[in-house]
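Model it.
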Amino acid sequence: MSSWDDVHFVLLLPIIWWTASIWRCSANTGLRLYSAGARFATLGVFIEYALKLYIRVEYPRIFFNCEDLLLNYGSCF
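Modeled.
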């Protein structure tokens, strides 16, 4: 990996695609409970993504052991 920033960017694109699909298609369900559950799940994915970004910025050494990293030591900081 070149850096964790690349990983977060790669993860963001499918999340946006998935959210748009779920949000638009959830109106086609028969029950409002399923529609609300699907939309709540998409919000949960964005909360998880925000938490990953927070950990990336505030606690970068949690993702991997920086002493063992040979390719890009600068991504640990």
